[in-house]
Amino acid sequence: MKKFILILAVFTFVCSDFLQAQDVSQLTAQCAANAGDVMYLKDFVVKLDQGTPGGAPPTARFALLLSKNVVYRFSICSAPNSEGEAVLQLFDMNTLLGSTFITATGKDFPFFDFKCQKTGVYHVFISFKEGKAGDGVGIMSYVKKL
After folding, report:
1. Can you give the pTM of this predicted structure?
2. CATH label of the domain that carries residue 26
3. Total domain count for the chain?
4. What angle do CA 95, 99, 100 make, to 5 degrees?
5. How far, in Å, CA of 99 to CA of 73, rounded?
6. Burial of 55 by CB count in 10 Å (0-12 exposed, 13-18 middle, 19+ buried)?
7. Chain segment 81-140, per-residue pLDDT in tens
């Protein structure tokens, strides 16, 4: 009986990782498909815990190299089990270049396009509104060359 329980526990642990990986890959595929008629380049998978009251919301940061005269599309999708809604922001140094959430209007967008004016390192920040916990994926796609 103890062997059976041990085998069942190991099986459950292995399967939970496998099922979680399937959920992430399904969310990534769905998010990439929702980006429109573009070429998928890269994904940014995040799993963030809830932030502390009054503190900065937990944020995942990713550095990437973008090329001049290329239009990129940045998309964001939250997992169905997320408490919060994911927000993707693109920065060049300390300058916000694009976001899927406009704070001034409170409006959300599933994606935004960015016309790269200079080749260099840029940063993608992904967080959840109000510092809530959640899983999500950001997608970077190629739209066209200018």
Report:
1. 0.79
2. 2.60.120.380
3. 1
4. 175
5. 11
6. exposed
7. 888 899 999 999 899 999 999 989 989 999 999 999 999 999 999 999 988 989 999 999
